Amino acid sequence: MDTQLDLWEVFIQSKAGSHHVHAGSVHASDEAMALQNARDIYTRRNEGSSLWVVPAKYITASSSADADMLFDPANDKIYRHPTFYIMPEGAKQI
Amino acid sequence: MDAVHTISDFQHKIDSDLNIEPKDVMPDKYRTHLIRQMSQHAHSEVIGMQPEGNWITRAPSLRAKQILLAKIQDEGGHGLYLYSATETLGISRDELIQQLHEGKAKYSNIFNYPALTWADIGAIGWLVDGAAIVNQVSLQRTSYGPYARAMFRICKEESFHQRQGYEIMANMMKGTAAQREMAQDAMNRWWWPSLMMFGPHDSDSPHTGDAFQYKIKRKSNDELRQKFIDKTVQQAEVIGLTIPDPSLKWNEEKESYDHGEINWDEFKSVISGNGPCNKQRMDHHIKYHQEGAWVREAVNAYAQRTQRAEAN
């Protein structure tokens, strides 16, 4: 039977020490092939120092329709930012 | 791909200031040291919620209560970042918590002191978080990738903690004589324990050797302590607080402060279990961990039932 193989999501660490960031996806039959394809497709110009591949079916994503419900509550909590606080005149480096 | 396959690759990466990642081969001593240090750090964030949580219902205004809640929420989040980063070293969350409960893993000694007054909430934010930030900024350059990345996230979020604490102290120092006295009293009780947060002097620090060789630590206890003192003294002076150290004086030559002797007997006594709140902190953690067991069981049972339903 013909198959397009499974979908895998690709994450690239651009340089040592940084976070892995989502780059896109590939099709592959297993882990080794997914890594190989990710390398061939996403890192042809030295984009990465490390790759992660994850079967797409294991990614659970929030729905954009829920964005307001999920992220609005942070909007009115400006006291979570240091700039909310007024420092006494002359106080250095806080 | 640059996975590290041998110990000599590991040393090469360390020597070149490159981060070690979870799948790299690493010496057992490196892994053990990191698990100890990172889990202690995670436990500190979580235990640190207790002295502050004690003041949520008694915060003097709605504004103060919202800020305190947000801060404690951050501490919980920071604990979770650090537990997750520690788990990349091959130890489970269950094991980490068990080590805490059995006393095999420690948390920062500072949380064995009580938060007696509202000014203590100011002093904790300003001094305790201030000291933690000095340490954490230097750990942004630690050699283990997941730890370093957790530190970046934490430092970015934590900058408000110190400011809110300083604001509390500054406001109290503008208040009545009783309020000023309360602020100074908190300062007197928290100053020395805050200096102890950096750990023993370099000459007496049992873990320093490995930590430097592996670039887990980038600055020594004494260097970090000095940095904290130098930036905090000026902040105290601006709002009229006195540092409770008669020997503290500016040293023109080294361009930093000389300070008095730290009471290491107190440090040793508190860290070995005799502080004012050691028992209370641990009892509280164990109690609520155990009381939460049914929730973990329930969500597992629900997940299993859902999986069975999907399979049928």
CATH architecture tag of chain A: Roll
State the end-to-end CA separation of chain B.
Answer: 42 Å
The overall strand count of chain B is 2
CATH superfamily membership of chain A: Phenylacetic acid degradation B
The helicity of chain A comes to: 10-25%
Overall 3D shape of chain A: elongated
In N-to-C order, the SSE pattern of chain A is EEHEH
The multimeric state of the shown protein is heterodimer
| Number of beta-strand segments of chain A | 3
Tally of individual helices of chain A: 2
What is the CATH T-level topology of chain A? Ubiquitin-like (UB roll)
Indicate the overall shape of chain B.
globular
Strand order of the largest sheet of chain B: 1-2
Number of individual domains of chain A: 1
Termini separation of chain A: 65 Å
Structural class of chain B: mainly alpha
The major sheet of chain A is characterized as: 3 strands, antiparallel
**Are there runs of chain A of 5+ residues with pLDDT below 50, and where?**
none
Instruction: Count every helix of chain B, treating DSSP H or I runs of 4 or more residues as helices.
Output: 13
- The percentage helix of chain B is 55-70%
The overall pLDDT average of chain A reads 89
Summary tags:
heterodimer, A: 94 residues, alpha+beta, Ubiquitin-like (UB roll), three-stranded antiparallel β-sheet, 2 helices, 3 strands, 18% helix, elongated, B: 312 residues, mainly alpha, two-stranded antiparallel ribbon, 2 strands, 2% strand, globular
Outline the structure in words.
- Chain A has helices at residues 31-42, 67-71; strands at residues 6-13, 20-28, 50-55.
- With 94 residues, chain A is an alpha+beta fold.
- Chain A has one domain: Phenylacetic acid degradation B (Ubiquitin-like (UB roll), Roll), CATH 3.10.20.520.
- Chain A has a 3-stranded antiparallel sheet, covered by helices on one side.
- In chain A, a hairpin with a 6-residue loop joins β1 and β2.
- The longest helix of chain A is centred in the middle third of the chain and has 12 residues, at 31-42.
- Chain B is mostly helical and 312 residues long.
- In chain B, 67% of the residues lie in helices and 2% in strands.
- Chain B has 13 helices and 2 strands; from the N terminus they run ααααααααααββααα.
- Chain B has helices at 7-15, 28-47, 49-53, 62-87, 93-101, 118-139, 145-173, 177-196, 208-213, 221-239, 264-274, 278-291, 293-311, and strands at residues 249-251, 256-258.
- In chain B, strands 1-2 form a two-stranded antiparallel sheet.
- The chains are: A alpha+beta (94), B mainly alpha (312).
- The interface between A and B is medium-sized, with 24 and 28 residues.
